[in-house]
Amino acid sequence: MSRISLVLLVGFCLSVQRIALAFLPFNFYMKLNNWLVSKIDQSPFLLSEMTWAICGISRRFSIFTCLTQAATLRLLLGKQSNSKIVIGVKKDQSGNFQAHAWLVEDKKIILGEDRTFNTIAECP
Question: How much is the average pLDDT of 104-116?
Fold first, then answer.
């Protein structure tokens, strides 16, 4: 498949994930996402290609949050992956609360580089 196909697929998935996160209760959203992951076979794209497309599109459209990106990659990896979405929190230097999500597979971060957050949830 071509890079254009990849960018179109990733753009569509990011958009659907963002809309679902905005309008669905989080627990229902995660159950729905897990169900979708269980129905998708392995992607024809390499992990590096998918992360390239997700990061590239997300840099241009700031509405795609870290959680949207992690959920999209998890979905694209399909049922062959044992990846988990991890959610963490911290306070910045000003004392403001911050949250971050990243994707982990076999205890290795595959999307979302920041190890300074305290893990509060892992979503299989």
Answer: 88
